[in-house]
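Per reviewer request, we include the raw input and output of the structure prediction for the construct analysed in the revised manuscript.
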Amino acid sequence: MGEFTRPAFAPFLAGLLRRRWPLLVLLALVALAEAATLALAPVLVRRQLDALGRTVPTPLFLFLFATVLLFALQIFQAACAALGRVLDARGRERLSMDMDRAIYERMDRLDVGFLENPRNRRLVYMFFEIGQLPWDAFAFLRQLGQSLVWIVGVLPLLLWFDWRVVVFLAAGSLLQVLVLRRRIRRENTYRLYRERKMAGIHEMIFLLRYHYHQVLSLGGQEQVRRTYWERREQALELAVGQERLGARYQWIFSTIGHLLTAAVAMLLGLRVLAGELSVGSFVMLTAWSAALVAALAALHEQAAEWARLSSLVLQWRFFWGQPGTLATGPEDPACIPDEVRLEDVTFAYPVLGDGERAYITFLVRELGRRLDHRSSWKTDHEILRDWEALLEEPGDPVPVLSGLEATFGRGTITAIVGGNGAGKTTLLRLLNRHHDPSSGVIRWAGRPMTGLSAASVRSRISLVGQSPFLLEGFTVRENLGFGCNPPPSEARVADLIARLDLVEVVRAWPGGLDAVLGEDVTPSGGQAQLLVLARALLQDRPVLILDEGLGQLDALREQAVLELLHAHKEGRIVILVTHRLPTARKADRILLVADGRIAEAGTHEELVALEDGRYRRFWEVQMRV
């Protein structure tokens, strides 16, 4: 097993930030301007106080001058803060959009097996928090720069006036570092522990909030609600525990900072009483000391943020480092096939992908190393045991398809039938090139599918699933036009709507075809399935697959759709997966899948004629029902 590959994050981040450099430079300049005002304000306050104490020539002029400048400085600082808020919102959303584009481009290159693997949600509990990673990284760098400006601007001034103040602050800062390091360790380990626990809690919240009436129909709402409130209590304790942990260390951290400021004030106050400093200088140096304490505290806080960002970068590296399981290399675009042939195809879903296993191994090694070098909580060991348990799971995949042979020809409707778990859905996933076979070959127009572009194969296949996939927020017309190249004409859309007997239905919707799904109209299950079928036909692709795509239609609508499919099958490969044998009967050819193989093949009449055939037994059972 190879090492977990870790793509370089810095060039990736630089590429994203480069796209928005004018906005980000402006944000950085605003932040630096705000930081600079902190060093200038105490100087003006000193001038005011010295003028009031008449320790300078022309006190009235200097007092008025310093007051006006201080007022202007405060107005400038407020303007910078207001402008910064607006620019922050724009920068955050722009970088988030850029990152989302990069994520989706990356997802385009991953196979469905990775994206649908539930283990990935267990591996990375806050997986798509990486969407905010570029902005968080920029904000980290900006805050770091702002803290350094405070330190560089104030530290030399304090050294010039009284080096003992700097010694006090440096000693206190080291003490703050020790407190903060322990706080970072505790908060980060507890955060991982909380996120792992919250994954199940969020699923329960989602279940009850968005599927409540389905829960009511089960009659199990009391049991579900009881579990729900137990999970909410767990969430409460986890949230309070995390805040209690942070509050404890924050109080200690802040107390040290206040003690430092008080000690500096006492030191400088003694010098004022001794006549070595003016009151104005006292206020100025105290303000600078407080600013330096705040800058050092912010710098320490950046260490905690760096630990969080490191965790997110690790998640990004896992996501970007996944090669997927589809064959890669020089790929040709898929042509229009005369037939699709499966030759001795065997397939098994991987129990744990190689990249995932390497990633978990990396995490176990890193966390184990940390546990060896510091004290740990129970939560640290629980996380480590969870990851180690994943590595101990059986690594031998269970075959779903074995030695499967099948041919799907153009101009033919082929029905695929079989019991639950026989491998029908897996077969469709292979045909869509969501996965590649473990062994054997799928030939597309005589060429191995692994040598074709996965995107181009899928662009030549229209799929109608059991659960109709329509996008809310788009009009009915837009949903019908998705994937159609060129866009269908009005006449063709109207003709297909009429043939599917949807004219009156569409006419009753506000705006007709321009009705917005989810806002103006919510089609019934059968209506949605007909719309998806219409879209598939409008796409006019060489392969049409219906995976239980007629299951929500009544008998009359189903018969009309089957007649329509026969009328449109010329030049197409039509594959119909169904449990309903009266539907399969109307296909040109039937394949019965059992135990991962094509057990029987032929027309309905041929298969019923087999005395001990499985298809015949299924047919007799359905006819009795």
